[in-house]
Amino acid sequence: MSEGKQAVEHSVPVGGIFLLFLGVVFLLQSLNVLPWGLWGNLWQFWPALIIAAGLGILLRHSNVWMVSLLILVLFFACLGIAIWQYGSFSVMG
Length: 93
Description:
Layout: H1 14-30, H2 39-42, H3 47-58, H4 64-92
């Protein structure tokens, strides 16, 4: 048998990143930093989960830490936009 290098394929833990994101959001809501009514705006960003899964699949041969950071930035950008939308709706209404 030849002893060649075996290609090690690393996959990005998209599920773990999403759970980390949810945990941070729930913690901030429990500490009254974020309002509970934010979920209506945050739910509009469900396609970000599909984008994150696609990034994990497409970039699975890249640096796992960089892709994980990119997915976290995507999730927290969605959170920031949802907070901004929630604030503008509450000021208008």
